[in-house]
Amino acid sequence: FVLVALRFAPQQAGDFKKVLRCVLNNSASTALALTVHGQGARPSILLENDGELWCRPTCVGVSSTATHTLTNPTRIPLVYQFDIPERYDAVVAVDRPAGEIPGGATVELHWSFAP
């Protein structure tokens, strides 16, 4: 019994298929043809409203909230992280500033603006 492990690391997006030849007992007559398949995907994320977030106008000391969605249209999980500039850190917040979105999933984020 032998366990064989293969690594797939595509350099571009697309479907890949390769036939591997496995020789048994050093005899070409016992060779097996193994067909392996792989798919490479380019990371992508879709932001609702072309990435624009709009909160209702509000007064100093009062909070305004908005909901925004992130969609992962690919088959691979994606890790995201929002980098809110330090000068806005006290007035803009998101409930999940970082996380992972499974392939084909959508995440709803809740933002708050409190000047």
In total, the number of strands is 8
SSE class: mainly beta
Span from first to last CA?
67 Å
Mean pLDDT: 91
Order of helices and strands: EEEEEEEE
**SS field, number of helical segments:** 0
As a percent range, the share of strand residues is: over 45%
| Proportion of residues in helical segments | under 10%
Q: Any idea what the shape is?
A: rod-shaped
Low-confidence stretches: none
Enumerate the strands of the largest sheet in spatial order, edge to edge or round the barrel.
3-4-8-6
Main beta-sheet annotation: 4 strands, antiparallel
Output the radius of gyration: 24 Å
Short description:
The protein has 115 residues and is mostly beta strands. Helices cover 0% and strands 47% of the residues. The strands form 3 sheets. The chain has a 4-stranded antiparallel sheet with strand order 3-4-8-6, with no helix packed on it. A two-stranded antiparallel sheet has the order 1-2.
Q: Layout of SSEs?
A:
Blueprint: E1 14-24, E2 27-40, E3 46-47, E4 64-71, E5 78-81, E6 92-94, E7 98-101, E8 106-113
